[in-house]
Amino acid sequence: MALPRPQLDPELHTLLADLPLQADLDLETLAQLRPYSAGPIDALLHGRAIDREDVTAPALDGTRIPLSVFRPAGAGRAPAPGVYWIHGGGMVMGDRFSQIDIPFEWLDAFGAVVVTVDHRLAPEATGTTPVDDCYQGLLWTVEHADELGIDPTRVIVAGTSAGGGLAAGVTLMARDRGTPAIAGQVLICPMLDHRNDTTASRQYSGEPGVWTREMNEFGWRSVLGGAADVPAYVSPALAGDLSGLPTTYVDAGTAEVFRDEDVDYASRIWAAGGQAELHVWAGGFHGFDALYPQAQLSTEARRTRTDWLTRILSTPHP
Question: If pLDDT is split at 50, 70 and 90, which confidence band does 275 have?
Fold first, then answer.
């Protein structure tokens, strides 16, 4: 018998009715979806005063990782906050321009320089390769902070969905390796736990949705490649110690598969003596604010996130 679920926000429920949904994901469907998961960067940049620079950074195996740098047009290279953005897509789709409108709001709000990374995707890339790519891109960004116009004491790592999970993994790497300094992490409905067995996960199983338990299982199976030993950098919920992390923002919806693992991650940061701000939006489904940014709940979620970042970045961090 299906578990009862929290009701969707009425406005989002109406909007979601027009979206084609599915219950599961496989390799054939993935091949069909990938072309549609890319971010519409040209349309987003049209008419906006944003400068773009495309660069590459070396991966651990020598592969060149594409990065794009966005800054307010004519801003010069005076040190500004830096946002290192990691896109969503279940580890298996999307590109560095996916959901880029979210950090563009921060570019507009406080003149942030946004750097976004094209990490390799599963199932072609497995294990730690995606998170290693993201970490190497972050190292490159901080090493080139002066020429990019980034204040290295005000670097934020941020991502949504799978990108939120990768952001958490990158931040754990940075803590454990002692570099680079991260002023804060923004984890938007992050994909944190490969075990996929929370109450929320079971609630969103067996019926079509934006991201279901079955789709989540496919994503994790694709990136893990059958490995029995799962590193915490890949599945951050496994990390035994969440102390020493930078201040953290976590948000999710009540009506999504990642709700419980996200609440647990924030709770464990508090238990370790760290600082986290947690928002669970009543009636929000997975990725609601990315899919329907003009909905009332979405505008509130985005505004709250931006307000938090503005507070965090208002003064240089030691």
Answer: very high
Q: 223-244 as b/e, with b when 16 or more CB fall inside 10 Å?
A: bbeeeeebbbbbbbbebeebee
Domain-located, residue 246: yes
**Is 269 part of a structural domain of the chain?**
yes
**Six token digits for residue 48:** 């906006």
Are the beta carbons of 274 and 118 closer than 8 angstroms? Answer: no
Average predicted confidence (pLDDT) for the chain: 95
Q: Could you tell me the pLDDT band of residue 316, with boundaries at 50, 70 and 90?
A: low
If you average pLDDT over residues 235-259, what whole number do you get? 98
Asked whether residue 50 is domain-assigned, the answer is: yes
Q: What is the CATH number of the domain that holds 119?
A: 3.40.50.1820
Q: Pick from 143, 86, 141, 159: which is nearest to 119 by CA?
A: 86
> DSSP 3-state assignment of 41?
helix
> Cα separation of 117 and 119, whole Å?
6
Between 162-177 and 129-143, two packed helices, what is the crossing angle to 10 degrees?
A: 60
What is the share, in percent, of the chain residues with pLDDT greater than 90?
92
Average pLDDT over residues 177-193: 98
DSSP letters spanning 194-214:
TT--SHHHHHT-SS-BSS-HH
With respect to residue 317, please indicate whether it lies within any of the assigned structural domains: no
pLDDT interval class at 314 (50, 70, 90): confident
Question: For residues 91 and 222, is the Cβ–Cβ distance under 8 A?
Answer: yes
